[in-house]
Structure formats: C-alpha cells, structure tokens
Amino acid sequence: MASMASQIDTYEAMRALSVRMVEAARAGDWDNLIELEKSVARLRDSLMADDDANAHLTPEEALHKAAIIQRILDDDAEVRRHTEPWMEKLRAYLSAGTKQRQVARAYTAP
C-alpha cells in the first residue's frame, strides 16, 4: 500500500506529464505525445493496483487530489481538441485508400 503522500506525489507526476502532453499535442509532436501517454498509463496503473487508494484521506488531501484530477481532465480535453482533427484526417485518408482498393478490385479481371 502506498502512503497518501506518495499517492499525491503520483497524481502530481501525472499532472506534470499531462501538461507536457498538451504541449506535445499543440506542437503536433505525436511520437512524444504517445510516449508521455504511456508514462501516464504506468502511473495510473500503479495507483489502480493500490487497493486502499482512498483509505484514510483527510478532507484536505481529498480536495487536493480532486483538484489535481480535475486539472488532468482539463488537460486531457485540451489534448483531444488537438488530436481529434488529426485523427479525423487520418480516418479520411485511410478510408480513401480503402475505397481506391475496392474500385481497383471491382474493375480488375479475376
């Protein structure tokens, strides 16, 4: 079981990474964004493995934890604002390639 202080430290580390994720998304640095997301996932998994994650939180700790989580969620929304248009372009590109292959197959002799 991790101590409350180390849990808060873990949430703070996740927050710092989420800030860097926003910067990477704004810059279109998708490779860096992916690596940062993997780092956040590892930290999240370590928190989820802790069965007593909410045990013995003082009201102040609970408020601090909630504030950190809200900032992480705000950062996530900002990342999505930058990644969703890129993903839509990628979907359209892949869809166009699929349609071209289907047309080529339809008009190619067996």
Explain this structure.
The protein has helices spanning 4-27, 30-48, 59-106. The chain contains three helices and no strands. It has a single domain, classed as Methane Monooxygenase Hydroxylase, Chain G, domain 1 (Up-down Bundle). The model has no long low-confidence stretch (mean pLDDT 86). Helices cover 83% and strands 0% of the residues. The protein starts with a helix and ends with a helix. It is mainly α and 110 residues long. Helix 1 (4-27) runs antiparallel to helix 2 (30-48). It is elongated, with a radius of gyration of 21 Å.
Fold topology:
Elements: H1 4-27, H2 30-48, H3 59-106
Helix pairs in contact: 1-2, 1-3
Features:
110 residues; mainly alpha; Methane Monooxygenase Hydroxylase, Chain G, domain 1; elongated
Order of helices and strands: HHH
The main sheet comes to: none
Report strand %: under 5%
CATH class: Mainly Alpha
Structural class estimated from helices and strands: mainly alpha
Helix content: over 70%
User: How many helical elements?
Assistant: 3
The CATH homology group name:
Flagellar protein flit
> In total, how many domains does the architecture comprise?
1
Q: How many strands appear in the DSSP assignment? A: 0
CATH architecture, please? Up-down Bundle
Mean pLDDT: 86
- Overall spatial form: elongated
Would you identify the regions where 5 or more consecutive residues have pLDDT less than 50? none
**CATH topology-level fold name:** Methane Monooxygenase Hydroxylase, Chain G, domain 1
Gyration radius from CA atoms, angstroms: 21 Å
Q: Report the end-to-end length measured between terminal Cα atoms.
A: 64 Å
